[in-house]
Design goal:
single chain; Nucleotidyltransferase, domain 5; five-stranded mixed beta sheet; 3 domains; 469 residues; alpha+beta
């Protein structure tokens, strides 16, 4: 009996022990579950972020006071404003920023934005410094702005001298600013090739428009029309979206302190001290290219000289393209094809807006499918030339009916007796949008035949598409 009683007592103790362990395990599981609860995790993160915000603001206030006192000692060579300072002697601009909550691998359209941007969800860094103050600082440090892209004026390349920048996150060693951005496919960080100092745009009362218009971009990853710094390449937003992500150098936590330092490109003494170079290119009737008013050369030789400007002299040549009156429409199309390949092949050669009286060279490279009216998404007027040079304006009106998925096209043709008669005809028959004109001419037609008509039309219809018949 004693054995039985002892066995029962031992079994009860074991049961009690197992029950206690189960209760403890449940408690640990509850604690673990609480720790993994998204709401609790977010609350804990926000608590830490609020602490960081308070610490940053206290530091900013302290440094603002010290930097303003420092600048007051030498007002002609120093500048200080909220979160930004500049020193003419060192040629440096120092800007204080903080990390956003962007994580590595996330789409990054901006490297740095203003506080009121609204685009911090797709930016790596954000700052309380204004674009107006940043531009003042850059100017005092000797970094003069160029201009951003402006597609409506056929300026597709950001223009300006190169500026290099580093960023130090939470006191870590400075890294090239480009290294916080990566290629979405390879995940390789961008090379340190600098940024183009565009300078935004002048606003009201001495302000910079970046502070109250556009996406508040201080450093963009695409060709933004309103930004202080742009990338030194063709990168239209629609072409590069989702191709740029935050690199693994991005911490993925918000409100960590960041210090950015901007410096003008340091160029060797044996190179031109300004990177941007204006170059005129004139196309002759025989297809030769003349650079800067010199004797015409074979296109291949002229292209080689342009490439040498980039590879040997580290220049950014901006080419203004014009042509002789005796050039044929077919010849101009061939020259345009060559220029397009040159511009898009990574040579560093940039085709700028055309001089007055000439369309942008890509006007000779329209989408071939637009020859067919049914393939167009809209119906601008057509200006058609015959082999004798006579011009006819064609107006196309879309007529929609309930029983068809595509409109019928009501076509009207009107002779254009002279270039002076064209503006009135366009005003009467052209749709309100787009302000485009499709031009059709035999390949042998000389530029002098069509030029007067296109010059008169350009005031109201700047978008030209020239087809070779």
């Amino acid at each position: 009996m004693t054995f039985v009683r002892n066995s029962i007592r031992g079994f009860a103790v074991a049961i009690a022990f197992l029950s206690l362990r189960a209760v403890a395990d449940d408690g640990r599981r509850d604690a673990a579950a609480d720790a993994l609860d998204p709401a609790l995790l977010r609350a804990d993160y926000e608590k830490r972020v609020e602490g960081r915000k308070a610490a940053l603001r206290a530091l900013d206030a302290e440094r603002d006071a010290a930097e303003r006192a420092w600048a007051a000692e030498a007002p002609d060579s120093r500048f200080a404003a909220h979160c930004v300072k500049a020193d003419r002697e060192s040629g440096e601009v120092v800007l204080r920023a903080f990390t956003t909550e962007l994580t590595p691998g996330a789409i990054a359209e901006f490297v740095l934005v203003t506080l009121n941007s609204g685009h911090e969800y797709e930016a790596v860094f954000q700052t309380e410094a204004t674009a107006t103050d940043l531009e003042k600082a850059l100017g005092l440090a000797g970094m003069r702005p160029g201009r951003p892209v402006e597609q409506s004026k056929f300026r597709f390349w950001p223009r300006g001298e190169r500026v290099f920048a580093t960023a130090s996150v939470a006191g870590a060693a400075p890294l090239p600013l480009e290294s916080f951005m990566a290629d979405a496919n390879t995940r390789a960080p961008w090379p340190a090739s600098g940024f183009v100092h565009c300078g935004g745009a002048a606003g009201d009362g001495g302000t910079n428009k970046v502070d109250y218009a556009g996406p508040g971009s201080l450093v963009s990853s695409y060709n933004e029309p309103l930004t202080i710094f742009d990338v030194p390449r063709l990168a239209e937003q629609s072409d590069v979206y989702e191709s740029v992500v935050a690199s693994t150098n991005v911490p993925g936590e918000g409100w960590l302190p960041v210090e950015l330092v901007f410096r003008a490109e340091s160029r060797p003494a044996n190179l031109p001290q300004r990177r941007v170079r204006d170059v005129s290119l004139r196309v002759a009737a025989d297809g030769s290219f003349a650079l800067d008013g010199k004797a015409g050369a074979a296109p291949a030789d002229a292209v080689e000289k342009l490439r040498e400007m980039v590879s040997r002299d580290a220049l950014d040549p901006f080419i203004s393209v014009s042509w002789d009156d005796d050039c044929s429409i077919a010849g101009l199309r061939a020259s345009a094809q060559l220029l397009f390949l040159l511009e898009r092949s990574g040579t560093g050669v940039r085709v700028d807006a055309p001089p007055p009286g000439f369309p942008f060279y890509r006007a000779f490279l329209p989408p071939d499918e637009w020859r067919e009216r049914a393939s167009r998404y809209t119906q601008p007027c057509e200006l058609r030339f015959d082999e004798g040079g006579a011009a006819t304006l064609v107006a196309i009106r879309e007529v929609w009916t309930d029983d068809k998925l595509a409109p019928d096209l009501d076509v009207s043709e009107m002779p254009v007796p002279s270039a002076d008669a064209l503006p009135a005809l366009l005003a009467a028959h052209s749709p309100e949008t787009p302000k485009a004109l499709l031009v059709f001419a035999p390949g042998a037609t000389k530029w002098r035949v069509v030029a007067p008509f296109l010059e008169r039309a350009s005031a109201t219809h700047p978008l030209l598409q020239i087809f070779v018949e």
